[in-house]
Design a protein that fits this description.
Elements (H helix, E strand, L loop, with lengths): L10 H13 L3 H8 L3 H8 L7 H11 L3 H27 L8
Helix pairs in contact: 1-3, 2-3, 4-5
Length: 101
């Protein structure tokens, strides 16, 4: 069976496509609501900046969801990118532990 690897989706894309656009919230408005520079929001939405723990807490407060939701998306993105960049090499370099009977 062949595994098809999907391109990792940055949480900023989720923020934009699933929250800002459908709710008609501008980047300037959310930046003000989060008390963050608009440039930070631009960088997150454009995939140039991570969602750090502090930002996850702010987004959770703003949208009424959990910081784990936002931070978890960032962690998953980071792991997917690491696997995309280094997974094949790590598979070759590291052997699976097998306990001897």
């Amino acid at each position: 069976m062949t595994h098809v690897k999907m391109t990792p989706v940055h949480p900023g894309e989720i923020l934009s496509e699933e929250f800002l656009s459908p709710m008609r919230i501008s980047r300037a408005f959310i930046a003000k609501g989060l008390n963050l520079p608009e440039a930070d929001i631009d960088d997150i939405v454009e995939g140039r900046r991570r969602i750090e723990a502090d930002t996850a807490l702010r987004l959770a407060r703003f949208f009424g969801n959990s910081a784990q939701f936002w931070f978890g998306m960032q962690m998953q993105y980071d792991l997917d990118k690491a696997d995309e960049l280094h997974g094949d090499r790590i598979d070759k370099e590291v052997s699976v532990y097998r306990q001897e009977s």
